[in-house]
Amino acid sequence: MKARFSQPQQRVKTITSGEKIYIFLCLNETQGTETYPDMGDGQTQESYYEYDYNEIIGPADALPLEDIQAHPEEYLNYEYTENKTDVDSLIKRIEILEQENADMNRIFEGVVNSESGIL
Description:
- The chain has 2 domains: 2-82, no CATH class; 83-119.
- Strands 1-4-3-2 form a 4-stranded antiparallel β-sheet, with no helix packed on it.
- The chain has helices spanning 65-70, 87-115; strands spanning 2-5, 12-17, 20-37, 43-59.
- Helices cover 29% and strands 38% of the residues.
């Protein structure tokens, strides 16, 4: 993605807020000017700085911050995605499976007891 700014930008800028980190990448700077009409008959010319741009947002302990700072060009298309196999989600899945197993055992016992005439 391209982004334009009115001032030069750092190649890698980070902002930490709570447990999250926001990383802004601005690479391959090009400078230009743009002319546009004023409210009257005049025209205004403004300079800009255009960059290949990316924003990366995620937990501070999950992003490879040192590598991003050392090699930002490798992260221009990077998008953080939460690891779906984290411990909390595995524990929840185990609890659901245990409950389903208990339900199946009750059903099985009911079927066995009803077939033998014990209910």
